[in-house]
């Protein structure tokens, strides 16, 4: 019998054998167990996450004669026929090659025939997003109201390309990427089943390289077993064409030390060993991402990336060579060069250029460059403070100097008390006081005239029509400053009021107006209020 690939050998035949997708599996099993079978399903997710396998298991489960808590028994006549591919009750259609309206019309015609053996006739349409617009429109009515014995299962990696009219007619299930630890567990079963010796670190390396896809992981393991029966990290790196962990740490250390010569020598070693620059840029980007996570997350890195405590400590030690701003800058450089190298005639030159730039200290005036230099200085200051606290460096004492004499405080002249004088004498004494103590206020008041006082209220008007000066002297702080000086000069409580030129008001009117203004100020506050 011809050799069968590992991902086909280890394709699950029951829900219990599924790895990951716990929520999807639980929901589908409950539907089978309770008989609440929908007429249309849509399975969405990235490659190798179990969409097609789940569709096949569901098609067997709803046709199984003796289901076991929602799982197919795999031993009844219906299950055996479906496992051997001998039943026409389940049809798999590749929408990538059957995407026209004519194929959908043929499907619509065959829907009218009931199943031969089981209870349901199942149509599994893979990569359904490849159907044309006309094909989707032809499928709409049949998908909405199929015969009671028909179930549609649509699978796609790009659900955003499926029309909303199709989405609304299906029960949607999203398949997430499978965690690396669960993939490594299934790889261990496959390696043991194949009689191979594989280290845990090699299997974890394969699981991470698969990026959440079980089929990719089994295919990589299959390639490794084609080389040798003993699978270790070195073999996996050779198969994938990636740099090993020690090389990535050495390269990152050279970046952290800003050692341009060491970086270029390491790139030369990389090229001599036959590695691809674009693959290495992806590897170093992942390594720098781990360093950034270590600098940011700290103790939670081990659980976040499925690392051992020793590996997490090693990453943390290397992350200390960089500031977070510099790590983000270098990571941006290598992520951008990965795209540039796809269209470059000399990928090595692009890798060397970007690596030299990553080693150089940024001297630009833009915000990222300034932030990076500030973070470097902050890190140096933190290191000095730590050394001082540990006693490695004694803090420098400032030279003793004689205390400087305090400057003599400027004395403010007192208001000259006016005894048995007129209101004009009080005003003149106040102006003389303001001239010495607050020359700014005096200069403005000198631009107007004292127009008399009544019941202790001294009134002043500016020269000419100047509403601005009247408004300024109507402010509480300005009025109070002049009123206090008038009170000191007169020896009795006095108030101050600025009036518009030509306006003559009595003391009673002035008091009433002032009370009105104070009421408005208490209600709306002292700031200006703009009414739109």
Name given to the CATH architecture of the largest domain: 3-Layer(aba) Sandwich
Number of strands: 10
Q: Please indicate the percent range of residues in DSSP E strands (runs of 2 or more).
A: 5-15%
Helical/strand content category? alpha/beta
**Helical element count?**
24
Could you tell me how far the N terminus lies from the C terminus, measured between alpha carbons in angstroms? 88 Å
- Rg of Cα set: 42 Å
CATH topology call of the largest domain:
Rossmann fold
Summarize the structure.
The protein has 532 residues and is of the alpha/beta class.
Fold blueprint:
Blueprint: H1 6-9, H2 22-34, E1 40-45, H3 51-63, H4 77-84, E2 90-94, H5 101-110, E3 121-126, H6 133-144, E4 150-156, H7 164-167, E5 171-175, H8 180-193, E6 197-198, H9 200-209, H10 214-227, E7 230-231, H11 233-240, H12 245-256, H13 260-272, H14 277-297, H15 301-305, H16 309-319, H17 324-342, H18 347-359, H19 367-390, H20 423-437, H21 439-445, E8 448-454, E9 457-462, H22 467-473, H23 476-490, E10 495-498, H24 507-524
Parallel strand pairs: 1-4, 1-5, 2-3, 3-4, 6-7, 9-10
Antiparallel strand pairs: 8-9
Helix pairs in contact: 2-3, 5-6, 8-9, 8-10, 9-10, 9-11, 10-11, 12-13, 12-14, 13-18, 14-16, 14-17, 17-18, 17-19, 20-21, 20-23
């Amino acid at each position: 019998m011809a050799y069968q690939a590992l991902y086909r050998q280890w394709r699950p035949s029951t829900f219990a054998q599924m790895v990951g997708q716990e929520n999807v599996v639980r929901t589908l099993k409950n539907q089978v167990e309770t008989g609440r079978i929908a007429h249309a399903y849509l399975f969405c997710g990235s490659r190798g996450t179990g969409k097609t396998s789940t569709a096949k298991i569901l098609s067997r489960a709803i046709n199984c004669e003796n289901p076991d808590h929602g799982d197919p028994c795999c031993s009844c006549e219906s299950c055996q026929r479906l496992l051997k591919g001998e039943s026409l009750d389940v049809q798999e259609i590749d929408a990538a090659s059957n995407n026209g309206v004519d194929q959908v019309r043929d499907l619509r015609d065959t829907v009218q025939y009931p199943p031969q053996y089981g209870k349901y006739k199942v149509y599994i349409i893979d990569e359904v997003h490849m159907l044309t617009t006309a094909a989707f429109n032809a499928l709409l009515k049949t998908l909405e109201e199929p015969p009671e014995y028909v179930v549609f299962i649509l699978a796609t990696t790009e659900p955003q390309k499926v029309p909303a009219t199709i989405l609304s007619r299906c029960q949607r299930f999203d398949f997430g990427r499978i965690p690396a630890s669960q993939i490594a567990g299934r790889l261990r079963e496959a390696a043991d089943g194949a009689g191979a010796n594989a280290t845990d670190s090699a299997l974890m390396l394969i699981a991470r390289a698969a990026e959440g896809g079980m089929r990719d992981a089994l295919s990589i393991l299959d390639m490794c077993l084609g080389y040798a029966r003993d699978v270790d990290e070195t073999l996996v790196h050779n198969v994938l064409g990636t740099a090993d962990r020690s090389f990535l740490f050495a390269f990152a250390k050279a970046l952290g030390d800003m050692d341009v010569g060491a970086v270029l020598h390491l790139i030369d070693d990389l090229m001599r060993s036959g590695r691809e620059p674009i693959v290495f840029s992806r590897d170093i980007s992942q390594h720098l991402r781990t360093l950034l996570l270590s600098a940011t997350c700290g103790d939670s890195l081990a659980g976040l990336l499925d690392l051992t405590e020793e590996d997490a400590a090693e990453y943390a030690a290397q992350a200390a060579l960089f500031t977070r701003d510099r790590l983000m800058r270098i990571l941006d450089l290598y992520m951008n060069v990965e795209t540039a190298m796809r269209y470059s005639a000399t990928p090595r030159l692009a890798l060397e250029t970007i690596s030299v730039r990553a080693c150089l200290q940024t001297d630009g005036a833009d915000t990222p460059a300034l932030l990076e230099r500030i973070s470097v200085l902050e890190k140096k200051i933190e290191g000095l403070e730590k050394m001082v606290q540990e006693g490695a460096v004694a803090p420098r004492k400032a030279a003793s100097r004689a205390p400087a004499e305090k400057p003599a405080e400027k004395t403010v002249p007192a208001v000259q008390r006016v005894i048995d004088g007129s209101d004009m004498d009080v005003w003149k004494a106040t102006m003389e006081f303001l001239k010495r103590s607050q020359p700014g206020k005096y200069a403005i008041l000198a631009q107007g005239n004292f127009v008399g006082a009544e019941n202790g209220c001294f009134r002043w008007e500016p020269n000419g029509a100047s509403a601005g000066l009247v408004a300024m002297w109507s402010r509480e702080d300005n009025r109070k400053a002049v009123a206090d000086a008038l009170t000191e000069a007169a020896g009795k409580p006095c108030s101050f009021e600025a009036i518009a030129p030509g306006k003559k008001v009595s003391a009673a009117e002035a008091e009433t107006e002032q009370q009105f203004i104070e009421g408005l100020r208490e209600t709306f506050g002292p700031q200006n209020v703009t009414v739109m």
